[in-house]
């Protein structure tokens, strides 16, 4: 299947999950009894697996060796549609990390978590004379206890890729089944699942454990930033679409809002901010083919996306008026997601500090670093 065909098929599936597509001006969705509902977010496990089934049925589930540009484009589309599934976490973070660590990649939806855990060897090497008892194991099987906070879509994922510190003072990657821990439901501002995963002496076999270099931990971080930036790029595009449609159809003083000069100026700023994010994400996508350049480009994309959210949301809500804040408004579904994603996996200032450090370290290589030449 060609790259364009794969994207077209997958985008059609994502469009079918968009509950506000084709709705009235307020974009409202209601339950069968007529009361207001939050749609698929009320049943995250069902919605995530339904999306995967739909992608398989349409022969649109990207293979492991899919073009990275297609994956980023799909995540942008997921951000635009508010897709109720961990598509970004699966395609841009979990799958590449598992492949790099040479671990099996499950077929279903995946998520990623990191944090300090109590990790002990499952099979202690009692005969080792190096260090205290328990400092070594006969293999890499471990037993894990602790709590992972705000795990994206834990309730909707088949497996969780966990990055933590191993028992031998080095980073370790674990592949856990989502059901191995106790899930405590949580959510972000937009209502998307951000759950706690409580692990109590969970046994992880050696074939699901890898000791990894620090570079892979850093890759996990910048991949997460790129994933959030791509989602924000899609949601920003939705804000532009909704705002232009609203100002074109809303009539005040005998003419559409879009005919007023002040409105035109604000719309131009809105389009500009969305384009800035799109350009940064596009540059980061192109850099994925060059491992040495991908990290810095991903930081810039994450920083730009986080920085532009406030202005995009301000303009979109200002031009929509009070209706944009209502529960029925499709604009609210886009802006609350952007506000949530902006602060996840680092946040604007964290990404900018990383960029600043890299620029200082570059020394006389600053110009090639900035221009990519």
Give descriptors for this structure.
49% helix; four-stranded antiparallel sheet; alpha+beta; 373 residues; globular; 10 helices
What would you say this structure looks like, in words?
The chain has 373 residues and is of the alpha+beta class. Helices cover 49% and strands 15% of the residues. The chain has helices at 3-16, 44-57, 68-81, 87-100, 214-249, 261-287, 291-320, 330-342, 348-362, 366-371; strands at 110-114, 118-121, 142-152, 159-165, 171-177, 182-184, 194-204, 209-211, 251-252, 255-256. Strands 1-4-5-8 form a four-stranded mixed sheet, with helices on one face. The protein has a four-stranded antiparallel sheet with strand order 2-3-7-6, with no helix packed on it. A hairpin with a 5-residue loop joins strand 4 and strand 5. Helix 3 (68-81) packs antiparallel against helix 4, helix 5 packs antiparallel against helix 8 and helix 6 (261-287) packs antiparallel against helix 7 (291-320). The chain is globular. The protein starts with a helix and ends with a helix. Mean pLDDT is 88; it is low at 22-37.
Number of strands: 10
Terminal Cα span = 34 Å
Q: Note poorly predicted spans.
A: 22-37
The oligomeric status of these chains comes to single chain
Mean pLDDT: 88
Radius of gyration from the CA trace? Answer: 22 Å
SSE pattern = HHHHEEEEEEEEHEEHHHHH
Instruction: Give the count of helical stretches.
Output: 10
Structural class: alpha+beta
Work out the strand percent.
Answer: 5-15%
Major sheet: 4 strands, mixed
Shape: globular
Strand order of the largest sheet: 1-4-5-8
Which percent range fits the helix content? 40-55%
């Amino acid at each position: 299947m060609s790259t364009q065909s794969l994207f077209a098929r997958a985008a059609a599936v994502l469009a079918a999950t968009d509950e506000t597509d084709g709705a009235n001006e307020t974009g409202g969705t209601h339950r069968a009894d007529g009361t207001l509902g939050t749609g698929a977010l009320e049943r995250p496990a069902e919605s995530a697996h339904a999306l995967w089934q739909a992608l398989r049925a349409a022969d649109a589930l990207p293979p492991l060796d899919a073009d990275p540009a297609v994956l980023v484009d799909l995540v942008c589309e997921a951000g635009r549609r508010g897709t109720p599934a961990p598509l970004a976490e699966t395609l841009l973070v979990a799958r590449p990390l598992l492949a790099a660590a040479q671990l099996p990649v499950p077929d279903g939806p995946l998520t990623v978590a990191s944090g300090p855990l109590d990790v002990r060897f499952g099979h202690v090497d009692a005969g080792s004379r190096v260090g205290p008892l328990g400092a070594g194991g006969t293999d890499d099987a471990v037993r894990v206890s602790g709590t992972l906070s705000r795990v994206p879509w834990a309730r909707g994922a088949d497996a969780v890729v966990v990055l933590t510190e191993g028992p031998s003072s080095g980073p370790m990657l674990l592949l856990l089944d989502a059901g191995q821990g106790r899930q405590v439901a949580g959510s972000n501002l937009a209502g998307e699942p951000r759950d706690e995963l409580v692990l109590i002496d969970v046994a992880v076999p050696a074939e699901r454990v890898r000791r990894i270099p620090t570079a892979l931990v850093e890759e996990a971080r910048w991949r997460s930033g790129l994933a959030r930036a791509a989602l924000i790029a899609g949601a920003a595009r939705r804000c532009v679409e909704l705002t232009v449609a609203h100002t074109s159809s809303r009539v005040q003083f005998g003419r559409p809002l879009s005919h007023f000069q002040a409105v035109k100026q604000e719309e131009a700023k809105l389009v500009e901010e969305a384009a800035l994010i799109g350009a940064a994400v596009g540059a980061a996508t192109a850099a994925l083919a060059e491992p040495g350049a991908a990290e810095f480009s991903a930081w810039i994309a994450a920083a730009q996306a986080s920085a532009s959210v406030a202005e995009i949301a301000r303009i979109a809500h200002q031009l929509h008026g009070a209706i944009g804040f209502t529960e029925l408004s499709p604009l609210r579904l886009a802006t609350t997601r952007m506000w949530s994603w902006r602060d996840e996996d680092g946040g604007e200032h964290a990404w900018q500090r990383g960029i600043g450090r890299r620029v200082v370290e570059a020394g006389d290589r600053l110009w090639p670093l900035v221009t990519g030449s």
